[in-house]
Amino acid sequence: MSDTAEMVTAVYDTIGEERPSDDNVAPHDDEYMIRCENLVKIYKTDEVEVVALQGLDLDVKRGELMAIVGNSGSGKSTLLNMLGGLDKPSAGSLFVDGKNLLKFSDRDYMEYKRNTVGFVWQNNARNLIPYLTAVQNVELPMLLKGAKQRRKRALELLEKVGLSHRKNSRLDQMSGGEQQRVAIAIALANGPRLLLADEPTGSVDTRTSNIILDIFKKLNETEGLTVVIVTHDVKLSKRIDRVVAIRDGRTSSEIVRKRSYAQELDEMGNIVGAAETEGEETHEELVVLDRSGRLQLSKDHMEKLGVKGGDKLKAEFDEETGRVVLFRSDG
């Protein structure tokens, strides 16, 4: 057994799960675009071994728009890279659009990145070639694929992101927000079914951030595109119906909007309904129970309980309310 295989086995022992075999992975479901189960990723060099994901579970339905949040080092970027076909899982189960990524060959990954997934990077230098115009940048993926009527399709995509007037502009002639919108058009060039965005509003102001999110929402609603956004932007996450928090390489909680954002907008796009009431929370945070019965408390809950990692808690079931009550142990 290799060192990496031994580490993978050790991770599953730690989380109390049996390591899945090739014949014991979760089958894909047509309802879901993404299905991750017990996903493990280990980075190994001669001197350092880092466990980036420790048995992560995540399901994303087809046509869903959701966000992933987490502190630096939580594993969210590792997950995004694996969903984008940029990195290979070490173990577990990962299906995207019905495809088992753990069984992919290098050629499979190439086809997957070309046809299934689109990627919007945080760093615009990775999205755009500076000496090409906006329309030429959007055409490039289609050129590599040998698609016909590239110019027509590129112009259509620039219109979708509101940048028809910038079609002949180069990178240095556009604002950061405009560059990011061109990046979205590029990501859509080959008609992907899954769009991944890494901090798409990380370097723009609030107004531009809202414009970019509105583009994602429109693409999600009108074209049925599944959109997954990794973000640190709290204001952005509050405008999304489902936000999954990752901590220490595992899904820790989900923040779900009580009413969909669309239900809180009138015909003019103004907030109405639940969000109008001063001080009323629009979201609720749900703790995620893993398949071994473990859960992660949020930092806010831990602070209120006055506990830290490694402390012991008592758990009692309240028959009257049907609730499990946690409280500090004196032991």
Structural description of this entry:
- The protein is an alpha/beta fold and 331 residues long.
- The strands form three sheets. It has a seven-stranded mixed beta sheet. A four-stranded antiparallel beta sheet has the order 2-1-4-5, with helices on both faces.
- Helix 5 packs across helix 6 (150-160), helix 5 packs parallel to helix 7 (176-187) and helix 6 (150-160) packs across helix 7.
- The protein is built from ten helices and 13 strands.
- Among the domains are: 60-89 and 100-116 and 192-296, P-loop containing nucleotide triphosphate hydrolases (Rossmann fold, 3-Layer(aba) Sandwich), CATH 3.40.50.300; 303-331, no CATH class.
- A hairpin with a 4-residue loop joins strand 1 (32-44) and strand 2.
- It is globular and about 70 Å long.
Compile the SSE list and pairings.
Layout: H1 3-15, E1 32-44, E2 49-61, E3 65-69, H2 76-83, E4 91-96, E5 99-100, H3 106-115, E6 117-120, H4 124-127, H5 134-145, H6 150-160, H7 176-187, E7 194-198, H8 206-223, E8 226-230, H9 234-237, E9 242-247, E10 250-257, E11 283-287, H10 299-305, E12 313-318, E13 323-328
Parallel strand pairs: 3-8, 3-9, 6-7, 7-8
Antiparallel strand pairs: 1-2, 1-4, 4-5, 9-10, 10-11, 12-13
